[in-house]
Amino acid sequence: MHSRIRTFGEYRAAYKRSVEEPEAFWAELARRFSWKKPWDTTLEWNFAEPSIQWFRGGVLNISENCLDRHLQERGDKVALIWEPNDPTEASQKITYRQLHERVCRMANVLHNNGVGKGDRVCIYLPMIPELPVALLACARVGAIHSVVFAGFSSRAIADRIQDAACKLVITADGMCRGAKRIPVKEVVDEALQECPTVKRVLVAKRLHLDVAMKPGRDAFLDSELRKAAQKFEAEPMDSEDPLFILYTSGSTGKPKGVVHSSGGYMVYADYTFRNVFQYEEDDVYWCTADIGWITGHSYIVYGPLLAGATSVLFEGIPTWPDGGRFWEVVDKHRVSLFYTAPTAIRALMAAGPEDVERYKLSSLRVLGTVGEPINEEAWEWYHHYVGKGRCPIVDTWWQTETGGILISPLAGITPLKAGFATLPLPGVQPVLLDAEGTELAGRGVEGNLCIKFPWPGMLRTTWGDHERCRQTYFAPYPGYYFTGDGARRDEEGHYRIIGRVDDVINVSGHRFGTAEIENAINEHEYIAESAVVGYPHPIKGQGIWAYVICTPRAPGEEQLQAEVDELVSKLIGRIAKPDVVQVVPGLPKTRSGKIMRRILRKIAAGETDNFGDTSTLLDPEIVDTIKEGALVKL
Ligand code: WTA
């Protein structure tokens, strides 16, 4: 049985089988789980509608597979290690049995508060144990969770709650990140002024703040939990019933609610986790992402728990109290598998090697990265200073939409190359297409990265708007799933991800659409128009550069930047603030009124010539004017 690959030869064999007999391949893997009823058909699909169904007719509950399935064999094994923000506060270890009980209690609380199968629950929580418990409790009652990263603004929360018509919100009184304290409940209260569908709010106590509680609507989670029974029969779910919604940015309009299924997602999260990291029963695994992003969903909660692993849940940040915090946690909990983002590596690299050299890091066995392309320098630093030259680095490429990792080395098995995500996992059939949609055959080619066959973890739809899902992912190249990324296949057939080919900016591994940020900036009363582009940033990967056209009464540039910061923080979140705001007299537009972003990107990147053909511009002179203004900011 090939559920766990151990050699490169086995990888090749598994890959071949997954292409030749995909249904048999995945069906065998799915049999590892407990199903309340076996599935009728393994796969039915077409990418035209699109309609994708894995394990149709199968009935299961993913929370049972994460918890109950392990109780007999590893009930007393630690499932979660919670490491708080402040290193002087005690960490917590939660066994599978304890987690099972906590999830059952929380499921009862949800049930007692009127949440049932198919209802949407918004979760806006810091990285505390209540967060994974809330996800699993939603899954247990059959509710669809929609986690909103606890750095988004009240406006962004309201948009997401309204889109999914959530019935209940789970939040906290406050949160701490580094030296900062954030009044989370206040942010939620503001959002809820515009969310009539929300009937109940459950509040976890993290900072024991004296928060305002709205009678009839708000309740403290701890008192609800005390009243709840410790058993909860898991709701039978169809394999294709939605498990969760997670909002992500695209090149147009508002963020989309990506919908993931129950059965296929489960099979995929488990298989990719165990194989990419080459997980062993006694590993301690730590993914530093936030559960507010897909990486946390699949590789802090579902993947590791399905595999019966010990997963670290970290509340803090890499740079507080100092740049050694990650490494301190690695030594303290003897972490063996460590998964982080290039932006964190670059930030720690910039702080110098002293902070990492203070720690042994002898427990580490495998390192991983995710979220953005990793530059060679950061890769080498990670390999040398963290992995001490002996740990393989898995550069994992995937997306919110893909549910799990698609292209990545298998740790210790696939030959590594800095900056390369290397080879597709079994079941994944990537192709590179040219602009006309023709598949580029052979090696040494570069094009738009698409996938031509379904895998179990892929998105099924976008919430409330299936047509948008079709338009965004399946219409650009009929017959293919389009990723939005460009990639290169080198002479050895290894993939290198180049970056987005659409108007999506990846800032510290977080996705934003340029239109989304422009819409926020345009709300400023003295800004007439704006154009936002990404530019190379030494720590964040990409920074945000905003070109704005002002009306006559606008304040000076410095004041304007402060006001734009505030506006974007309010409408989206602090993480989307532009790094640079440049006031310009006009934008480079074609005669048909289209902004030539290519030019703006080049200017922000510090290029002074090679702007290509500018003859189609309405006012070619504007390029020089913008360039001069940009030079003083670079
Ligand atoms: C980028 C995060 C290069 C890519 C899991 C993708 C990467 C977007 C890598 C998805 C990687 C992710 N190398 N680029 N290893 N991993 N990306 O939805 O542009 O937050 O399309 O999912 O991040 O970001 P998302």
TrEMBL record:
Keywords from the UniProt entry: Acetylation, ATP-binding, Ligase, Nucleotide-binding
Keyword ATP-binding applies: yes
Recall the GO molecular function terms of this protein's record.
acetate-CoA ligase activity; AMP binding; ATP binding
Q: Which PROSITE patterns did the record assign?
A: AMP_BINDING
Entry's Pfam families? Answer: ACAS_N, AMP-binding, AMP-binding_C
Q: Domain Acetyl-coenzyme A synthetase N-terminal spans what residues?
A: 11-66
Q: What is its EC number?
A: 6.2.1.1
GO BP annotation list? acetyl-CoA biosynthetic process from acetate
Enzyme class name: ligase
Matching entries from InterPro entries are given as: Ac_CoA_lig, ACAS_N, AMP-bd_C, AMP-bd_C_sf, AMP-binding_CS, AMP-dep_synth/lig_dom, ANL_N_sf
Q: Tell me which family the UniProt entry assigns to this protein.
A: Belongs to the ATP-dependent AMP-binding enzyme family.
What is this protein identified as? Answer: Acetate--CoA ligase
User: Which organism was this protein described from?
Assistant: Cesiribacter andamanensis AMV16
The taxonomy runs: Bacteria, Pseudomonadati, Bacteroidota, Cytophagia, Cytophagales
